[in-house]
Write a structure and sequence with these properties.
This protein is an alpha/beta fold. It has a single domain, classed as 3-Layer(aba) Sandwich (Rossmann fold). The protein has 9 helices and 12 strands. The strands form 3 sheets. A 6-stranded mixed β-sheet has the order 6-7-8-3-9-10, sandwiched between helices. Strand 7, helix 6 and strand 8 form a beta-alpha-beta unit. It is globular, with a radius of gyration of 18 Å.
């Protein structure tokens, strides 16, 4: 089973410590929501896990130090949906999604049947199959988000890292994408997703990590983490708490102070 271990992780950028001593262990089958206010270190944490920025402390995947892992091997094991969705080149949607198969093929090699099947499945799941020929530069922000999610799905890695993947989506696609991630976890993969929609995270994530000022403030189930005290202390808000089909519903309703 996939295992990710983070021990006393520190990240400094521009002379300021963004992530301060974060430690947690995660395994396949978990859908983890990384939550916290703006500037709490969520994106920096994901980028550090991917080796995109320098960090200190321990980061291991299946007991292998991620910092020593070859780039291709890391790409076979970890996919990433970045928060930035700008598109520079007018590549077709199908071509962009096909790039997710790059770690699985040799240089200059054509896609095989298994690769084409993975691309088709990913486009269908992300609801972008009907725009396969359209240039990604002509799509709306929400449509581009779904294309990039499809690319990560086509990568078929054991760990999925997604940075606010639902932020530009309409409500139906927010639910659909989160259901897809939930299904990945149910099938044994590890998913870490940053999210500002607390009810969405509470409904679908099996575990929440609450970050604040670079530190891990709480780690546990939605009911353990999304308490009135935590929301007041970390977010500075009062919230409505309810229930829907035995799932916690959390709606911030007023700022404190």
């Amino acid at each position: 089973m996939t295992s990710l271990n983070v021990e006393n992780l520190h990240v400094s950028l521009g002379g300021r410590e963004i992530v301060q001593g974060v430690s947690f262990a995660a395994s396949g089958g978990e859908f983890i929501g990384l939550i916290g206010p703006n500037g709490s270190g969520k994106t920096t944490l994901l980028r550090a896990l991917l080796g995109l920025i320098p960090s200190t402390g321990g980061i291991s995947l299946n007991n292998v130090d991620l910092r020593t892992m070859a780039a291709k091997h890391r790409a076979l094991n970890m996919s990433y949906v970045a928060q930035e969705r700008d598109a520079t080149w007018p590549l077709s949607v199908e071509t962009v999604v096909s790039l997710g198969r790059t770690p699985h093929i040799a240089p200059m090699q054509q896609l095989k049947a298994v690769d084409r099947d993975a691309v088709e499945t990913a486009m269908r799941e992300a609801d972008v199959a009907d725009m396969r020929e359209r240039p990604i530069t002509e799509l709306s922000g929400g449509e581009r988000s779904r294309v990039l999610i499809a690319r990560a799905l086509a990568q078929a890695s054991s760990v999925m890292l997604a940075d606010e993947p639902t932020s530009a989506l309409d409500p139906a696609h927010q639910i659909r994408v989160t259901e897809i991630f939930s299904g990945l976890a149910a099938n044994g993969r590890l998913v870490l997703m940053t999210c500002h929609d607390l009810s969405l995270a509470a409904r679908f994530c099996t575990r929440l990590l609450l970050l604040n000022n670079g530190r891990l403030e709480a780690d546990g189930s939605a009911r353990q983490v999304l308490t009135a005290e935590n929301l007041q202390r970390v977010y500075g808000v009062q919230a409505f708490f309810g229930e829907d089909e035995d799932k916690l519903v959390v709606v911030p309703r007023s700022a404190i102070g």
